[in-house]
Amino acid sequence: MIKSQAKAFNFRFYAVAALSLSAGILCAVYLDAALSVVSGIALFALLSRAKKKAFIIFFVIGAVHTVSAAAIYGRDDGLTVKNAYIEGIISELVVKDVDSVNFYIGDLRVDGKKRPGAAYVSVLYDENYIASSPDLKQGAAIAFVGDIEKYYLNPQNISSVSFYNAKKYYRAYINGEVVLSEGGKLAPSLRQKIYDGADAYMSDATVGVAYALLFGDGGAMDGETEGYYESVGVMHVFAVSGLHFGFLFGALSFIFFKIKFKRKYLRETLIFVIFLAYAYLCDFSPSVMRAVIMLTVHMAARASGRRYDGLNILCFAAVIILLINPLFLLSFGFLLSFFAVFGITLYYKKTAAFLSRPFGRFFDERQRPLSPILRPIFGLRRLVVNSVSMTFSANVGAFVFLSLFFGGIPLISFAANIIIVPAVSALFPYLLTVAFGGAAAPPVNAFFVLADKAVVFLNAVARMLSPFSALSVSVGFSAVSGVLYYVVLIYLSKIYIGKRLNIIEKIKTAFKNKK
């Protein structure tokens, strides 16, 4: 086989591995552990004769890993302490509400003993002077006397699981004097420095949006603005994922092309290192890890002259992420990210090809050179086709979870994505450049003024379209109907685990034979 025609991971072993692992996790959460293992072995023995041992192993790993994780997270370690000496690093933006200030502390120590995870601290303005202190910034070391108690995990509660997946295990209350000092981890300190640089040149209504676009942290967004974006179905632009890494990858590839950097293996290695650094700043969320894994495989395939199977690599990423933390399977962020990309993998190219057919021959650069008059029209047509195709395929893939958690897909999201996603694609590389340039040389922060104008435009679009959000498509899915939905989705895309089904051709052949 010619090397350039080979596929990386071309047999969809990881698709079935991901199903096996997921089934083991779900059985461990919702069924009796012993019964789930026995039934799982019987079920997956029927799915594959040649690989059944491997599939059974993945199922058992998923079940055992989940049981052990839940036991570790949920066990009573006796940490309900009064008047303890609590130390840590403020790990996220300090959010000031109307009557309180809220923050998380990581690198937690209680009475000198290190504890896993982070603690949530909330202080009323009239309880302690710390509420109005300007020194409360992420990255600062903090110590105080207070009470601390543990949150307990309920694996069947989505919000509880999401809380634990973010490694926030405790609730703390301040009783005495607070001591702040410089220092701490690089990531929160750098994020705070970037936020301060942006805050100096952007308004309160725009700085939170810019920070959320950069790091996926919406803590600084005001509730009204966040509500506009959520109502028009574009909150995905604030979850750092493949969209952001795709922009970063495109920008870096363009730079290396312009400087004529031809050492491809070194080039891909440098891009990978930059990806890891950015993922570290974004706290390695599930969507970030998925994007890094998939783009890394893509770069490896490109550097070696191989093509890769998007569906199989998506499942490969899911296996890696679930082996790291099986409870990510119960997290809304993981489910929405995975199934949105699942839909894009199955339907994006098909949808784009279908939408490109009308008047396609009049705007095809390959058939004839475009005149200066037609070129902008062709570019606009391609932009609309790509945006609609991406929005449609992602929404189709995540439709079950959008219906369960958001009540459906707002129809206005198609128009919103056509405007907002291209605008974000242009704004994000600029924000990234100014943010890290300003962190290295503070005068560069002055360029946040232009970003402020761009975010004002985005906010205006979301606010203008939000009244139309009541028009939505929704279905009340059960567990059975949700599974059936994805089975039909796979069959309609003519993709099945390990082989392809050309349903349309079979129907045509059967019709011709009848004639």
Give a verbal description of the structure.
- The chain has 515 residues and is α+β, with helices and mostly antiparallel strands.
- It has 18 helices and 13 strands.
- The chain has helices at 13-30, 33-47, 52-74, 158-165, 186-199, 204-215, 223-231, 242-258, 264-281, 286-303, 310-324, 332-356, 374-397, 399-406, 413-440, 448-465, 479-492, 503-514, and strands at residues 7-8, 81-90, 95-96, 100-110, 113-114, 118-124, 141-150, 168-181, 307-308, 409-410, 472-473, 495-496, 499-500.
- It has a 5-stranded mixed beta barrel. Strands 1-9 form a two-stranded parallel sheet.
- The longest helix is centred in the C-terminal third of the chain and has 28 residues, at 413-440.
- The radius of gyration is 25 Å and the shape is globular.
- The protein starts with 6 loop residues before the first strand and ends with a helix.
Tell me the radius of gyration: 25 Å
Structural class: alpha+beta
Strand proportion, as a percent range, falls in 5-15%
Helix content: 55-70%
SSE diagram, text form:
Layout: E1 7-8, H1 13-30, H2 33-47, H3 52-74, E2 81-90, E3 95-96, E4 100-110, E5 113-114, E6 118-124, E7 141-150, H4 158-165, E8 168-181, H5 186-199, H6 204-215, H7 223-231, H8 242-258, H9 264-281, H10 286-303, E9 307-308, H11 310-324, H12 332-356, H13 374-397, H14 399-406, E10 409-410, H15 413-440, H16 448-465, E11 472-473, H17 479-492, E12 495-496, E13 499-500, H18 503-514
Parallel strand pairs: 1-9, 6-8
Antiparallel strand pairs: 2-4, 2-7, 3-4, 4-5, 4-6, 7-8, 10-11, 12-13
Helix pairs in contact: 1-2, 1-3, 1-11, 2-3, 5-6, 5-15, 6-16, 7-16, 8-10, 9-10, 10-11, 11-12, 12-13, 12-14, 13-15, 15-16
